[in-house]
Amino acid sequence: MHELSIVKDIFDTLQEHYDAKVEDIQQVQVTAGLLSNVQPVLIQNAFDAFITDHPYYQEMELEVLVNDIIAHCDRCNKDFQVRYHKFVCDDCGTPSAHIVQGNELFISKVIFKQKDH
Molecular function terms in GO for this entry (predicted)? Predict the structure, then answer.
């Protein structure tokens, strides 16, 4: 299950970049492209398991956004959505392997808890 290592990397990244503020994080948003082979439900399960063992993360939430696969047609000079893993331009029928979006996996947003004044 590579989701556990992904979740561990997420927390390592949060710790590295936010250090003392990591306990104040309310929500982490992760963006994953369809080609990254990330299953949102498995990431959520791994996340839930991880925070169970780390009490200071108990209130943190995870949101996983999944991006469609977008390729670029050099012939039409247009981007198109890849459907059913057919990397063929909708307009001209030219095959394309130039991926613009869909293989990414990154932390796209970190939301901190509001401090009471």
Answer: nickel cation binding; zinc ion binding
Report, in this order, helix, strand and coil percent for the chain, each rounded to 5.
35, 35, 30
Q: What is the pLDDT of residues 5-34, one digit of tens each?
A: 999 999 999 989 887 787 788 999 999 999
Q: Report pTM.
A: 0.84
Domain CATH number, residue 6: 3.30.2320.80
Angle subtended at Cα 12 by Cα 9 and Cα 18, rounded to the nearest 5 degrees: 135
Whether residue 56 contacts residue 19, with contact meaning beta carbons closer than 8 Å, is answered with no
Predicted pLDDT at 21: 80
Q: Is 84 part of a structural domain of the chain?
A: no
The range of the structural domain enclosing residue 45 comes to: 2-17+25-68+101-112
